[in-house]
């Protein structure tokens, strides 16, 4: 550990503890001496000056809270002594200037992806099953069990072997306590017949009928965007027939999104079939034919400008805005400088960071669209007795994210420092190179679902507490904020940003390392842990209040 504490911005009146500090301990920083009034755990903050009730708490150079009573210099920041606060935001037509990072070292560098007829380049080659209504989830589950097991995409063989060992021990009168999962051999993946098909994915959901017609309409656009996704090569749709989300609606949304859609698309409606058995058998056979065709596709070189990366955080901690998020932010600046696309979402986790984003938005209409979406979303939450200020989870707070503004300003760092070129509502496709803002909840899976809908072909997911979250069609790369998490949950973490906290790597060095990983993942040379685990999380947003 090169240092014990960190100040993010010179004007901040808090310091971040990089290691556990004790009450009474004397800390020297920036020519000042601080005597701690409380124990301060790593990731938490303490105040660098006395504060009176109502005084502003500044971190990341902006207002993140207000003192609730007198706070002595050196005191630990917690939910009892400060509450969330953020400055109002407005459009002020700044002449934003950006100096991109030097990307000359990446000149001519490519990744090997799947080229689609509309010019998009996928980082994977998936077949996708879509139900237009929850009534078809059971049929999808039957098909999934059949295809995953027989075609080598299942990841449960080791657990099946473990269960067989438990059964054998039980039958033989042995104590099952002696049966250990770690003694179960790891079987090599089944010999997949389709070498160029990275997976068969299933979008089980609870929508399509019973809710509002608006819900069905939004779901239709979401499913169409997944069918059109660059990582998807073919689609099988299962419909019941009588539901709100009609097949015709889905096809119309798909046609609007891509008038020249030319991927294999097979649609089956159960109420028009002879039997469930016939429906499932026909869907399996036709999909098998489609798999034969898409297996003929091969990866080919593509410029890095074809990368579209969604940046997300979840299970965040007090180091998220110190190590992983700014490192991903530097990656974002590199990708933008290379002509690629970056998607920053989670609007409840931009609360308090709005002014900076508005000032960086190059188009007035886009800036005002962002303000409208943020304002409308916030009002919806407040109408039901909630609000963005309630966004930090108990886990966030326990690990140092005391207010939403602290969490949000750290979260916004994932987007880097480049201009905001566009603002997208939920399911709107990204069209412009550069940094775009995407309206989604902060909820991990609803957010990743929305990023993929807008066109992300990789997702960088930072976490300080650990989460297995993934996405069916978009490989999700887990970036840890600290090395302890990486060691403890190594089976789900791909990249460790702990060296930034330890002082062994700079933000820039870490960002470049993340880009190198992304290039390999986009080329299929590295398989992220969430993909290996088939962590295919998919939750459509109904546009109700979800933080």
Give a verbal description of the structure:
There is one protein chain. This protein is of the alpha/beta class and 547 residues long. 31% of the residues lie in helices and 18% in strands. The protein is built from 15 helices and 22 strands. The protein has helices spanning 137-151, 157-171, 213-227, 247-257, 276-294, 324-337, 354-360, 364-383, 394-398, 404-411, 444-454, 483-488, 498-502, 507-522, 529-532, and strands spanning 5-6, 14-17, 26-29, 32-35, 45-47, 56-59, 62-67, 82-84, 110-115, 121-122, 126-131, 199-202, 232-239, 265-269, 300-303, 308-313, 341-344, 420-424, 434-438, 458-463, 476-480, 495-496. The protein has a seven-stranded parallel sheet with strand order 18-19-17-16-20-21-22, sandwiched between helices. Strands 12-11-13-14 form a four-stranded parallel sheet, sandwiched between helices. Strands 1-2-5 form a three-stranded antiparallel sheet, with no helix packed on it. Helix 6 (324-337) links the parallel strand 16 and strand 17. The longest helix has 20 residues, at 364-383. The two termini are 35 Å apart. The mean pLDDT is 94.
Q: Which regions contain 5 or more consecutive residues with pLDDT less than 50?
A: none
Kindly state the number of beta strands.
Answer: 22
| Strand residue content | 15-25%
Walk across the major sheet and give the strand order.
18-19-17-16-20-21-22
Overall mean pLDDT stands at: 94
The biggest sheet amounts to: 7 strands, parallel
């Amino acid at each position: 550990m090169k240092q014990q504490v960190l100040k993010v911005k010179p004007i901040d009146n808090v310091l971040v503890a990089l290691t556990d500090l004790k009450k009474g301990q004397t800390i020297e920083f920036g020519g000042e001496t601080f005597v701690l009034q409380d124990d301060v755990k790593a990731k938490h903050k303490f105040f660098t000056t006395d504060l009176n009730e109502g005084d502003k708490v500044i971190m990341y150079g902006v207002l993140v809270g207000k003192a609730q009573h007198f706070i002595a210099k050196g005191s630990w920041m917690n939910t009892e002594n400060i509450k969330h606060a953020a400055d109002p935001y407005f459009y002020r037509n700044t002449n934003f200037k950006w100096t991109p990072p030097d990307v000359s070292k990446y000149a001519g560098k490519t990744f090997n992806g799947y080229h689609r007829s509309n010019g998009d380049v996928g980082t994977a080659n998936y077949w996708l099953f879509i139900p237009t209504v929850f009534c078809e989830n059971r049929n999808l589950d039957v098909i999934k069990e059949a295809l995953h097991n027989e075609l080598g995409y299942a990841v449960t063989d080791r657990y099946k072997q473990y269960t067989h060992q438990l059964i054998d021990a039980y039958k033989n009168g042995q104590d099952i306590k002696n049966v250990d999962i770690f003694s179960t051999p790891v079987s090599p993946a089944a010999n997949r017949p389709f070498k160029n098909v990275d997976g068969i994915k299933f979008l089980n959901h609870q929508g399509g009928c019973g809710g509002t017609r608006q819900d069905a309409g939004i779901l239709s656009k979401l499913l169409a965007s997944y069918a059109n996704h660059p990582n998807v090569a073919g689609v099988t749709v299962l419909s019941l027939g009588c539901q709100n989300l009609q097949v015709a609606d889905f096809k119309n949304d798909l046609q609007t999104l891509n008038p020249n859609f030319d991927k294999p698309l097979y649609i089956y409606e159960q109420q028009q079939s002879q039997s469930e058995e016939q429906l499932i058998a026909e869907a399996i056979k036709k999909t098998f034919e489609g798999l034969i065709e898409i297996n003929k596709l091969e990866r080919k070189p593509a410029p890095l400008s074809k990368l579209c990366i969604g940046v997300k955080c979840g299970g965040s901690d007090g180091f998220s805005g110190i190590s992983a998020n700014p490192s991903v932010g530097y990656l974002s600046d590199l990708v933008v400088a290379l002509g690629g696309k970056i998607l920053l979402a989670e609007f409840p986790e931009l609360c308090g960071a709005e002014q900076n984003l508005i000032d960086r938005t190059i188009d007035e209409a886009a800036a005002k669209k962002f303000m409208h979406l943020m304002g409308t979303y916030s009002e919806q939450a407040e109408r039901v007795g909630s609000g963005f200020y309630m966004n930090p989870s108990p886990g966030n707070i326990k690990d140092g994210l005391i207010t939403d503004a602290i969490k949000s300003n750290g979260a916004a760092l994932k987007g880097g420092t480049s201009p905001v070129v566009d603002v997208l509502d939920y399911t709107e496709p990204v069209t412009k190179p550069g940094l775009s803002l995407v309206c989604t909840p902060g909820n991990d899976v609803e957010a990743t679902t929305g990023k993929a809908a807008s066109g992300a072909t990789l997702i960088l997911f930072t976490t300080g507490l650990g989460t297995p979250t993934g996405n069916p069609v978009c490989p999700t790369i887990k970036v840890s904020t600290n090395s302890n998490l990486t060691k403890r949950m190594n089976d789900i973490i791909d990249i460790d940003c702990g060296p930034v906290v330890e002082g062994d790597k700079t933000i820039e060095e870490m960002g470049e390392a993340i880009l190198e990983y992304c290039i390999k993942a986009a080329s299929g040379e590295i398989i992220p842990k969430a993909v290996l685990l088939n962590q295919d999380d998919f939750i459509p947003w109904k546009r109700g209040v979800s933080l």
